[in-house]
Amino acid sequence: MAIALIVIASPLQAICAVEAIKEYELRGYKILVLKEGRRTIQVTRFLDEQGLDYDMIDYNRSFVQKICDICGLFMWHKLKYDYLFIGDLRLFTLRCYFMSYLRKGSKIVIIDDGNYLLVVLNNIFKQSFIFRLKEFIFSIFAWVRTVEDKHLFTCFAIDICGRRHWKIKCNELKHLQISSKEVKNKIYVIGTATEVYCNCIGLSIYDMMEVHERLFDMIERKYEGAEIVYLPHGRDQNMDLMNLCKKRGINYKLLDRAVELWIMNSIELPIAIYGFTSTALYTLHLLFPQIEIYNVFHKKNDCVGADKYSYIGDIYSKHGIIQVIL
């Protein structure tokens, strides 16, 4: 039985943290939530519902704070933990700071933060020199302090190619308590951050609206009489989508929590869920394997971003998530 320091910033990281507490049979733990705008409320609400205590720390660090964090590599604290669970591989300075709280032989475990791990660890994008340099420096200090820093607790365990560098434990999301639900004649469409998505795959906003039109047409034909519920991305500013839903009689429902948590706490389930390569499609497939889940992709332009989404979509397909090309 071990004690752990858990640092999280997103609802998915919070879900994975709850799983880690049970999967690793932790005797004690301290949860730190990074303050990061609207998502922080979603995280703390979930932790409150789970009956877990937590403290808050600032996510946006000044340059001076980052330098002080890095100095944590040269510090030792009396309070020692056996594990550091942290939800973002990119949080270099915070990993440096919290390493000073780890005892000899302890482990740093990276938990899921979207499908970012798939893209980085499978070398879909070439990692920058600065990123590789920071990881090298961090690994040297971890070795000097006899801390194991190459551990993953991830839902994507079998899909990560660079396994020889990492010790990977599969997160099957099997410990969350989910009550029985009634299946309703509804279809959920999980939205994306339109501008970011379009910029990434080289698609215009106009073309993205056309994709939504075709998607809604297809759903209406396939599920005649079903209610369509559109769940917009929390950071989406595209008001045209709201107007489109209103025009077509589609329920545009802005959530106050992550979609996974909203469905988990709902008393009903839809017939099917559609989305745009969101990590939520994968986690919902694990949580509710009885639901048909579809990944919508529009491959119009050849660009690096489109290749990334296409790659992730292919992985989703291997796990039973059906790909729809529009």
Layout of helices and strands:
Layout: E1 2-8, H1 11-23, E2 26-35, H2 38-49, E3 55-58, H3 63-70, E4 81-86, H4 92-99, E5 102-111, H5 116-121, H6 129-144, E6 148-154, E7 167-170, E8 182-183, E9 186-190, H7 194-201, H8 205-222, E10 227-231, H9 239-248, E11 251-252, H10 259-265, E12 268-269, E13 272-275, H11 279-287, E14 292-297, H12 304-318, E15 322-325
Parallel strand pairs: 1-2, 1-4, 2-3, 4-5, 5-6, 6-7, 8-12, 9-10, 9-13, 10-11, 13-14, 14-15
Helix pairs in contact: 1-2, 3-4
3D structure, described in words:
It is a single chain. With 326 residues, the protein is α/β, with parallel strands linked by helices. The chain folds into two domains: 2-170, Rossmann fold (3-Layer(aba) Sandwich); 182-325, 3-Layer(aba) Sandwich (Rossmann fold). It contains twelve helices and 15 strands. Helix 12 (304-318) links the parallel strand 14 and strand 15 (322-325). Helix 1 (11-23) runs parallel beside helix 2 (38-49) and helix 3 (63-70) crosses helix 4 (92-99). The N and C termini lie far apart (50 Å). The relative contact order is 0.12.
